[in-house]
Give the backbone structure.
Amino acid sequence: MGQKVSRIGVLTSGGDSPGMNACIRAVVRTGLFHGLEVFGVLRGYSGMIDDEIQPMDSKSVANIIQRGGTILKTARSKEFRTSEGRTRAYANLQKHGIDGLVIIGGDGSFHGAKTFSNEFNIPCIGVPGTIDKDIAGTDFTIGFDTAVNTAVQAIDKIRDTADAHDRLFIIEVMGRDAGYIALHSGISTGAEHILIPERKTDMEALLISLQEKEKRRKLVNLVVVAEGDDFGGANEVSKIIRERLPNTDIRVAILGHIQRGGSPTCLDRVIASRMGYAAVGSLIEGRHNVMVGIVNNRIHYTPLDNAVKAKQRISEDWMKIFKILAS
Ligand code: ATP
């Protein structure tokens, strides 16, 4: 617990994710409700360094809850990794009298926040905004639900055409080094195989399974691959299947950035609103260096240190359920 705040800044940093706007709205309106002045920092930490900082009022966040992207823009800043960059950023915060920050972003952004807060003793509250869902200390991250639903809608469409032609589709979804989008979208579209970074990909076993299913005339349409799978993405996987099973009719679909955009789902809007509200409450209560998350449907605080280091685990049960249902 630390000092009280009166002027707070909010920024979005790292990769964008649908629902960030709903969170900005919650931070601004909760801050105003409590009599704080609220400032929007444009382009993440770059905007802090370049003094792209503007006052926000209730109207400035009107009509954004349903919009993907982020009205504050987001960026990755090399300069913020340097002591000179962070010193300039702090000088700009001082100029505006900002004495507390809400950072909506991923683990990299929290790492930066922690360093900054330690150097300048300014309270920083992290809010997990990432489609990858790769942050410990929360059951949800803002944007994951929208991204995975976008993937599901796209995969359903691909299944129609795959089925019509008896084709095998290798579909690559986002998630960087986390397999959550692949796991959830694969289970919910009835994919026959899911390849994720959290499990070593056994390509021989996949090839044997495809051959065996071909023999018993089980139509295999969909293999969902996480972009960060240890074997490689959809192109690498399809290459080896083509080499080893030359009679299989294969196509590759890389879903790409459509998974980042679009109107946030109800779930993402609700968690973004709850987390934004709680983040401001945390600053008012004098918390320092924590990430606001939701665990078992309750607001949960995790020291930024732990939010940075730990990754969520995928339990064996999930893989077992998937294997039984896809057999
Ligand atoms: P996403 O999960 O969507 O990629 P992220 O927050 O992890 O989001 P990063 O690019 O890793 O995205 O981090 C965002 C920004 O945070 C970086 O561009 C940099 O400015 C800052 N940052 C990250 N790590 C550090 C660090 N060790 N020290 C200072 N700043 C950092």
Q: What stands out?
A: The longest strand covers residues 7-12. The pocket of adenosine-5'-triphosphate is lined by residues 13-15, 45, 76-77, 80-81, 105-109, 111-112, 115, 130, 132 (CB under 6 Å). The chain has two domains: 7-143+264-309, 145-260.
